[in-house]
Structure formats: C-alpha cells, structure tokens
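Sequence in, structure out. Go.
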Amino acid sequence: MSDFFAYYVHASNSPFWSFAVHDGNRINSVLTNYMQLNDKQRFREEDPYTGTIAELPVNKFIVSTSRFQLDINRMIDDAIYLHPDQAWGLSVWKDLPEEHVKALKNEYESVFKEIETLIQRTIDDHGYFVVLDIHSFNCKRSAPDEEVDKEANPQINLGTIHNHLKWRPLIQHFIASIQNQTYLSQPIDIRENVKFKGGYLSKFINEKFGEKGCVLSIEFRKDFMDEWTGEPYIQDIMAYRQVLMNALTDLQEYNFNDARR
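Output:
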C-alpha cells in the first residue's frame, strides 16, 4: 500500500470476503491542488458507511481513498476520472500531471495483483471463496425531497452478471436468505441486476477464479442516510450489517463440495 491508495486488509480463517472499495473520501495531499471537487461534492457519489456495513467476521478489504482519486471498480483507462463523462458530468481534475497519472495507474496494477494473491490464498486454504462486494446508490437525484421510485430502485440491487452459471444455486440461496429476513421490521426488496450488474472488480475476480467462487455485488439504496447532507442513520446502517451477518450464517450451510474439486 502506498500514499496514492489507502486501504486495509484484515485476514481471517474464512473463505468469505467483504469488500468496500468506494467507502473512502481521502485525497492524497500531493494531489489536492489538482482536485476541483470539495469533500461534499465527492461524498455525494461515494459509498459512505459501506465500510461499516462490511465490518463482518470474515476477511475484509476496505478502501479509504476516494474513488475520485482512483476507482478500482473500473477498468484502468476509466479508473482515473480525467473526463466529465467518466464522473457523472463532473470535472474532477485540473491539469493533473502525467507523472501522477502514471503513479496512480501503477498503484492500480499493484492493488489488483494483491487482490489476486489474496483470493488465490483463500482458494488454497479453503477450496473456494465468496466475495460480498458492498456498495450503495443514490435514489433521489433531482432533489432532497424527491419521492423514491421503488419499482426502479430496489432496496438491495444484487449484481451477478459476471458469475459462472454454476453459482446460480448459491445466488438463489443468498437471495432467499435476505428475503426471509426483515429490515427495521419490514420485508426486504432484493432484486438482481436492475440498477447495477456488477463492476469491473467482479469481472476481474470472476475471470480469474470463477470456477472456484463468486462475487455478490450488493448495492444498498441510500435509505440508511440522507444522501444530500451525508447524515447517517446509525440504526439503519447497523440493521443492514445484521442482515448480511445473518446471510453469511446461511451461506456457511451451502454445499461447496463441487467448488473444492
């Protein structure tokens, strides 16, 4: 890990991983003079508090650097938001020197090598892996008082498009586990591939290791916070973490024998 990309890895004796790659808001001090967005503007499109939801009793990979500095859920050519069309129409950088662009791309390649090593080690130790790739998404784009279109914006969007077909039973097992729970005493609306289908990190891991495991890209609608002010609703955040805790317990009962062969 270098100053250009801050994250922490917590390894445990588990085949499961929780990733929160968009949780962070930090910008390296070397780059702040070139950054045109302030903390609040960046915060709007980041996934705050997903790192808290990802604090599960499994392996963890939590990123504290802002996606506006380096986004490892994008292919390398889009991982640095050099053009507004890469960043929701926002102008992110002003005259970012090529030497810094190169350093960020080198960091990107280094991080992916580490992720590859971590997943391979998990397979070596357990015979399989499952990644909970945790994100969130805005649902009030027009105004703070906008009424949420719940049909177009499921409470939990599960991105699964990159997974091997052999993992369909596991995906259904996970969905059923969520549906059998409640969130703040209410049923949970979880649907697949409605808003998001899974980003580049999922694609990368599945292309390398898809026979031995899968990535569940879990996008929570930002009901657990005020997406305009950034105010967290702590009870709601902790309730989502408990939902994933319960789902992990159910996943541990899944038969992974085919993956170990």
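Check: Residues 7-260 form a domain with the Aminopeptidase fold (CATH 3.40.630.40). The radius of gyration is 18 Å.
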